[in-house]
Structure formats: C-alpha cells, structure tokens
Design goal:
The chain has about 250 residues and is α+β, with helices and mostly antiparallel strands. The protein is built from seven helices and ten strands. It has three domains: about 1-30, no CATH class; about 45-145, Substrate Binding Domain Of DNAk, Chain A, domain 1 (Sandwich), CATH 2.60.34; about 150-250. InterPro entries: ATPase_NBD, HSP70_peptide-bd_sf, Hsp_70_fam.
Length: about 250
C-alpha cells in the first residue's frame, strides 16, 4: 500500500518495535544518569497561536520549537483571546485550548498594538498564556497542557491535513486579508473625506479620491476580489503620490 501511494519501496531495514524499545532504553539511561553523553530535546508537537480578524490563526509558537520556550506578540484591542493548537490557517480547523478574557480595556485606533500576548511552555509541556494591556497594566492568564487530549496519531493526522489543504487554506486566507485591508482603507478614507474643508473638497485630487472610495464600497458589497485588489492598489498609490496627506491621522 505504501509503495502504491509513494511510488517507491519502503525501507524495511529497521524493525519499528526495536526502534521504540531502543528509544525507551536510551531515555531510561539518561534519566537514571547511566548515560551522560546524550541530550534529549523536547519540542512542541503542534503550532500554537491565537484567533485574529476573519477567523484566521496567528501563530506565536511554531511546531517543533524546542521547549522550554517563551514567545510574545502584540495585538490591537481584543476582549477575548482564543488560544489554538494546530497547523491550519483557520480557527475552525484547529484545536481550541481555551480563552483568556480581558475586561475594561480602553478602545484604541485600529492597528495600534496595546495587548501583549505571551506564550510560555515549561519543561513539562505546560503552556501559560498571559494577555497584558500595555496601557493599564491589567493582565489575565490561563494555563493548559498542550498535549493533554491528543494522541500521536491525532497529531500526525492534523499535520497531514494541513499539508493536504495548505494551498486552499492560503488562497482563502489571502482573500479574507484582502477584504479586511480594503474595509480598513474604506473606513479610514471616509474619515479623511469627512475632515476636509470646503476648499479642499473641490480640488481635483480629492474629487478623484471620493470616486475611488465609492468604487471600493461597491466592490465590498459585490465581494469582487479582483476589482478590490485593483482599487486597493490605487488607494495606496494615492497616498504615496500625495505625501502631504498622512493616512495615520484618520485611522
């Protein structure tokens, strides 16, 4: 069966039972102190991350990272921090490990990171996740055992599923990111137009920009990805060509 799938004969020179027995014997020797020239390294069996906009998973600790380890990333305001384990691009295709809730977080402009998320795995495979509001110092934590409910077969299956669906997942992820980016540009652009005085509103560049905003809005309603990508490029080109306008002032 293996040969029919892979197109080549499997290597039968090793007995899998003997390999397992040898590995267990070596580990026992290391733990007992009888073997001193071998170092056993533990790694994370699957990637760990959090949910972001569009149901996408943002990886914080990659699969096969040596443990113990500690990693962190900063995010914009989030009330619920959904912790996930797996190799797929979307929340629904990964294993949920829990949710960290931060209450009474002040609002902030989009794109400004105010939540620091820290993932720390100790030598026993225990994951501690801390979400800290950088503005107020308020923080919440949760602790989980990252391999508690998954067998080796289940872990292997999750890795295989990710490999088989990698192309489809990336296409879907790119589409979501494109529409999310366009929606952000649309909101920022509308704020920009709302702050223009009457004299500027009649300038040719702003008349053109107003038309561009209308096209972006129509594409969002139609969910036309190709048109959306084109108008996003035009939007970015507008601000690149008009350096006197700072988009950050309208975020």
């Amino acid at each position: 069966m293996v040969e029919s799938f892979l197109g080549k004969k499997p290597n039968r020179s090793l007995n899998p039972d003997e390999v397992v027995a040898l590995g267990a014997a070596i580990q026992a020797g290391v733990l007992s102190g009888k073997i001193s020239n071998v170092v056993l390294l533990d790694v994370t069996p699957l990637s760990l991350g959090v949910k972001i906009v569009g149901g996408i998973v943002e990886i914080i600790i990659l699969r096969n990272t040596l443990v113990p380890t500690k990693k962190f990333k900063c995010f914009s305001t989030a009330v619920d921090l959904h912790i996930l384990q797996g190799e797929r691009e979307f929340v629904s295709d990964n294993k949920s490990l829990g949710i960290v809730r931060l209450n009474n977080i002040p609002s902030a402009p989009r794109g400004i990171p105010i939540i620091e998320v820290i993932f720390e795995i100790d030598s026993n495979g225990i994951l501690s996740v801390t979400a800290k509001d950088k503005g107020t110092g308020q923080q919440q934590s949760v602790t989980v055992e990252v391999t508690s409910n998954l067998s080796n077969d289940e872990i292997d299956q999750m890795v295989r599923d990710a490999e088989l669906n990698a192309k489809v997942d990336l296409i879907a992820k790119d589409e979501i990111n494109t529409f999310d980016k366009g929606n952000f540009y649309l909101q920022s652009g509308q704020k920009c137009l709302a702050k223009l005085n009457l004299e500027k509103q009649i300038e040719f560049k702003w008349i053109s920009f107003c038309k561009l905003m209308q096209n972006l809005e129509n594409c969002l309603k139609e969910q036309n990805l190709l048109k959306y990508e084109r108008f996003i490029e035009e939007y970015e080109r507008f601000f690149n060509n008009n350096t006197d306008v700072n988009l950050d002032d309208y975020v």
